[in-house]
Amino acid sequence: MYFSSFYYITRISYLSGKLNYQLMKKLSSIPLAAIIILSSLLISCEKELPLDEAIIGRWEVQSYKYVIYENNVKKSEVTIFMEPDEMEIQFAEGGAGLMYEFGQLAGNFSWSLTGSTVSAYFGDGTFTWEITIENDTLVWSYDDSEVENNITYRYEFFYTAVRVS
């Protein structure tokens, strides 16, 4: 009887100690995990620039996509990838803009920003673009439509560009 009682007490004590060790191990890893998570959040939290400041710079167009709808039914979607330096757009402070093709100046325009809408004024007309900027990627989009033979065609265009300066 003495041996079996001693065995059970020793076994319970051993298991209790093992449980305490595992519990302490888990509890000690919680502050470490919290420190890692908080520090990564603080490091990754950069102050986001307002859109009117973030747009300033030169952007190289990587691709453009167009989507065609007939009577609100999507008929096709095509993405075209650009060659390096094939098309660049530059937004300068004060509302001036420049277009480049293959590194050469191709034209100028003026622009204004209201919310996330850019109005670009070229010599032959005004274009209205919706823009988003995330990290160093600018996406601008616009749509157009026409009616031909009682069929309404709607076109959506999306340009994706990366900041080069």
Q: Mind explaining what this structure looks like?
A:
By secondary structure, this protein is of the alpha+beta class. The chain has two domains: 1-45; 51-163, Lipocalin. Helix content is 28%, strand content 52%. The protein has two helices and nine strands, in the order H-H-E-E-E-E-E-E-E-E-E. It has an eight-stranded antiparallel barrel with strand order 1-3-4-5-6-7-8-9. It is globular, with a radius of gyration of 30 Å. The N and C termini lie far apart (85 Å). 8% of the residues are buried. The model is unreliable at 5-11 (pLDDT under 50).
Question: What labels would you give this structure?
Answer:
globular; alpha+beta; 9 strands; 2 helices; single chain; Lipocalin; 8-stranded antiparallel barrel; 52% strand; 2 domains; 165 residues
Give me a quick take on this structure.
With about 160 residues, this protein is of the alpha+beta class. About 30% of the residues lie in helices and about 50% in strands. The chain has 2 domains: about 1-45; about 50-165, Lipocalin, CATH 2.40.128.
